Amino acid sequence: MALTTSEWLRLPPGRTIELPGRGTVFVRESTGPPAAPALVLLHGVTMTADLNWFGVFGALGQHFRVVALDLRGHGRTPLAGRFRLTDCADDVAALVGALGLERAIVVGYSMGGLVAQLLWRHHRPLVAGLVLCATARNFRGSREEGLMSLSLTGFTRAMRFNPFLPLMGSGVLASAILGQVHDSLLRSWAHSEMERTSLATTSDAFDEVARFTSHQWIGEVDVPTAVLITLADHVVPVSRQRRLAAAIPGASVYEVDGDHGVCVDGPDRFGTALLAACRSVVLDGDSIAR
To answer: How far apart are the C-alpha atoms of 285 and 127, rounded to whole Å?
Structure first.
């Protein structure tokens, strides 16, 4: 009998949770050891919880209670209206409440790192710590930098005039976002996961990312924070990642040798760095709610 994708990737159980007044959200959960600190994992644009975190569920689950969700409009979570980063942050806050978590360490990758920053700003009592991966304070630099240099925003805007846009998925952007994925089976699965998110949602998400900035308030972060830098990133320049780390008082820095898609193409080395970053946040905190 052939293995299902979940069995092949050893994904934790998934379920749909109703968020009062906010719709439903798809979540994967690993309970971890008794009384383990909670991690909430937030994926990047066009990605899903499965795609972004499949390689680290096992390692993190040995030390933490792990909760990973598909952000609104991505993967198995539907979208009502237009995509907004603030709505994503409010969804995460509602999910933390629905799961009975008093506080959690919030781990954000790329766009998920922006959502994590907003969650701290708007729902501070819920955030016990931050781990910000392959992300930045903003993407408002020169045309040679970041997402804008890939013309992803311009591409998705142009696609809005395509009458078939509502029917098209974001798999067409797989190589632009992830870079090279060497394993053919993994590459095919990554494409299929990205196809779950429509290009219409991706277009709105890129617009939101392009407008986002935490430059004026990120220095106020008052919880233990680690910044994980992807050293060969063609989407989020290393210089922007380092400026994010420098702007957060007391932030620790971890590095992984890989492109923006290292979470997919190099999950072992990404997982090693991520686990170290998450454990450092626990050690730096006076107390982390269970």
So the answer is: 11
DSSP state of 3: P
Helices 199-211 and 152-159 meet at what angle, rounded to 10?
Answer: 140
Q: Among candidates 140, 117, 119, 107, which has minimal Cα distance to 237?
A: 140
Q: Is residue 11 assigned to a domain?
A: yes
Q: In terms of DSSP H, where are the helices of 195-261?
A: 199-211, 238-247
Tokens of 155: 């591409």
290 part of a folded domain? no
DSSP symbol at 213: B
Residues in contact with 118: Cβ distance below 8 Å, sequence separation at least 6, in sequence order:
85, 86, 88, 89, 214
Question: Following CA atoms 204, 210, 215, 218 in sequence, which dihedral angle do they give, to the nearest 10 degrees?
Answer: 40
Contact 259, 233 (CB under 8 A): yes
Residue 48, CA distances (Å) to 26, 68, 76, 231 in order: 10, 9, 8, 22
Domain membership of residue 289 (yes or no) is no
What pTM does this model have?
0.90
State the CATH number of the domain containing residue 209.
3.40.50.1820
- Structurally, the chain folds into a number of domains equal to 1
Query: What are 289's two structure tokens?
Result: 């709610």
CA distance 107 to 39: 7
Q: Is the pLDDT of residue 7 over 90?
A: no
Residue 239 sits in which domain range? 5-137+144-284
Q: What is the pLDDT of residues 21-60, one digit of tens each?
A: 999 999 999 999 999 999 999 999 999 999 999 999 999 9
Cα-Cα-Cα-Cα dihedral sign, residues 105, 240, 235, 277: negative
DSSP 127: E
103 contacts 288 by C-beta, under 8 angstroms: yes
Is position 273 within any domain? yes
